[in-house]
Amino acid sequence: MSASLAVSPTALAVRRFRRDWLSLVCAAFVVAMAAVALLAPMLAPHDPADADLLRRLLPPAWMSDGEWSYPLGCDGLGRDILSRLIFGARLSLGIGVGVVLLATLIGASAGIFAGFAGGAADAVLSRIADVLLGFPYLVFAIGLMGMMGPGLSNIVLTLVLKEWVVPFRVARGETLGAREQDYVEAARALGCPRWRIMRDEIMPNVLSPVLVVAAIRMANVIIMEASLSFLGLGVQPPAVSWGGMVSDGRDVLVDGWWVATFPGLAILLVVLATNLASQGMREAFDPRLHR
Question: Which residues have a Cβ under 8 Å from the Cβ of 60 and sit 6 or more positions away?
């Protein structure tokens, strides 16, 4: 057997992803932003909640009257925008990663169970998923947050309730195909219990597409969190989020364009990088594209 044939499919997928320089750069950017979020207390030059009206709408450092100690300027309360961007990354990225991980765990588990068990369990779970998919995402989130009230736990719960449907459908579809394979039939013939077949035979084959979809969905969750925070339904002050920063700047767009522009750019760049990196992952790890 040649060396090329001995290489595992995962190793080949990693090689393909590494050759896609754009996706690789975007993935590195997302990882760097995650590192910035984790190290926010050490990297932020000022306290993000330190307000001083003498610095109100202080412009960025390269503009006249700007100060290099506040390189991106200050907001309407005199708070350092750079420090708030760094601390805002903790919340915005943290919610994105946390919601996607939790929703993927719930959705993939339910999808594997529904696809393998079939019958009434599959019908009930699939109908619930269809009902949730029928609601527009933002309308669903606004309605639920309006009933529960703003807050970190409520926004996570709201987004998970909507987001688990996507990995559920992916996992269910992959399981429906995998349960008819010979290795699953062999495990059944050997008398393996259902839970072991799902864990040892089905889950490894479902994991790759589910993880790729999870990476794609993270960008959507970040946008939804920012949208809810912009509307005042997200995490409340003194917590800092990028969507809340954009909301703070909407009333001073003429006199202080930088207040809303820099957090808006942060959302744009992270979402764009996440989308491009996840698209590269999909193209590298999907075996159907390399037959």
Answer: 66, 71, 72, 73, 258
Strand partners, 74: 80
The CA-atom distances, in angstroms, between 44 and each of 81, 96, 97, 263 are: 10, 21, 22, 15
CA atoms of 245 and 261, how far apart (whole Å): 9
Nearest CA to 92 among 287, 266, 273? Answer: 266
How far, CA to CA in Å, does 143 sit from each of 69, 140, 159, 218? 42, 5, 12, 21
The rounded distance, in Å, linking the Cα atoms of 18 and 22 is 9
**DSSP-derived secondary structure letter, 198:** I
Largest Cα separation within the chain, whole Å, is: 78
Helix H, strand E, coil C: the string for 52-94 is CHHHCCCCCCCCCCCCCCCCCCECCCCCEHHHHHHHHHHHHHH
Tens digits of per-residue pLDDT, 192-210? 777 777 777 777 778 778 8
Rounded Cα distance between 258 and 26, Å, is 25
Q: In the chain, what is the straight-line distance between the N-terminal and C-terminal CA atoms, in Å? A: 20
Cβ atoms of residues 162 and 132 within 8 Å? yes
**In the beta sheet, which residues pair with residue 80?**
74
CA distance 257 to 254: 6
Neighbours of 117 (CB within 10 A): 15
Residue 28 CA to residue 25 CA, distance in Å, equals 5
What local confidence, expressed as pLDDT, does residue 286 receive?
Answer: 65
The candidate with the shortest Cα–Cα distance to 165, out of 214, 202, 117, is 214
Please count the residues of the chain.
291
Distance CA(175)–CA(184), nearest Å, equals 11
235-262 per-position pLDDT tens digit: 888 889 999 999 989 888 888 899 999 9
